[in-house]
Amino acid sequence: MSVQIEMLEKNMAKLTIDVPAEEFEKAITRAYNKNKGKISVPGFRKGHVPQKMIEKMYGEGIFFEDAANDVMPGAYEESVNESGLDIVSRPKIDVTQIEKGKDFIFTAEVAVKPEATLGEYKGIEVEKAVVEVTDEDIDAEIKKVQEQNSREVVVEGEAKDGDTVVIDYEGSVDGVKFEGGAAQKHPLVLGSKSFIPGFEDQLVGVKAGEEKDVVVTFPEEYHAKELAGKEAVFKCKVHEVKTKEYPEVDDEFAQDVSEFDTLAEYKEDIKKNLLEKKEEAAKNEKRQKVMDKIIENATIEIPDAMVETQAENMIDEYAQRLSYQGLSIDQYFQFTGLNAETLKEQFKPQALKNIQSRLVLEAVIKAENIEVSDEELDAEIVKMAEMYKMEVEKVKEILDDNAKDTMRKDIAAQKAVDFVADAAVEK
Fold this sequence. Notes:
Blueprint: E1 2-7, E2 12-19, H1 21-35, H2 51-58, H3 64-83, E3 92-97, E4 104-111, E5 125-126, H4 135-148, E6 151-154, E7 164-173, E8 176-189, E9 211-217, E10 231-245, H5 251-257, H6 263-297, H7 304-324, H8 329-336, H9 340-367, H10 374-387, H11 392-398, H12 401-422, E11 425-426
Parallel strand pairs: 5-11
Antiparallel strand pairs: 1-2, 2-4, 3-4, 6-10, 7-8, 7-10, 9-10
Helix pairs in contact: 1-3, 4-6, 5-6, 6-12, 7-9, 9-12, 10-11
């Protein structure tokens, strides 16, 4: 096997990979052995038809596709290693020669990792954030705790915004019922906006035992295309109206929900915790502003294929997170009306920003000779062990050299972020 490398514009490269005819012929034979049991020829038992006979009857290229799929992965991987290029995209493959008795030749167009040329990155000016905790902030936190400690009670009066109505409903469009448009004893929080716009508003004021027709129009972009933009009538029967009762905010409340004896002490602790959170958020915001400015000042030529691959990787990670919630990516597409391409387009801006940040930080690491000591790596492993409730030595056993190398890079990147943030000037 041999490879020729042609550097293209915008950090792209084309690998022309030549697989010797003998090697491709062996792949054809493997393809024949794999498929011969599926091919019938009069006068021969299935699985015993000679290769040449099959090629004569169906064309000599009958096994080319399987043979090409057999040799390409290994030939591509070997070529990448031989090229020494740092490839950051999936290859765009094009077969240029595939004939009996000749070398199999294909090309792989790939993105090569670019380098960032730094502009100004030290002494970046950013606006100083004002960090304060207001009485409204404290009240909002207490409201959340009140919500957590509330209880639902059945009421006889009219349902108001925020109440829960327990309803049967059955929907129809032009008098025809539709799939998924009915339920019994469904609890619906009015104002939650979990139903079609306008549905919940029409149930404000209902009482237990009442029946009401709710008329709504499905949004034009509704995921069920057969319902999009159409008017529907939902016949509703109200079984119950429930409202929330909240505990009184006083010293007793503070004793019930915290370790403090008085409401004043509890509020002071809330203020302290909120201040810590806001200070951390301000630090993160400062880091992001500094990074945005450094990226703006840098020169980086990022190939489109690199952004495509990053976005595709983000979709894969998103699909994995969905699977932990019991939802497949196909179900997600069905519910949202999106598809793989539209989701990729949504991810692309963030994919580009991730790439820019990584390349800029690598340039800062190089410029400032930022290194990661064994002690720093060990400290990170200790944190990991605590997070997963494992013994430190066990974690070290699990981590191979590649994993440790990735950890070193991540630590170095964080040190680079801290370096440029600390060097920034707040105005």
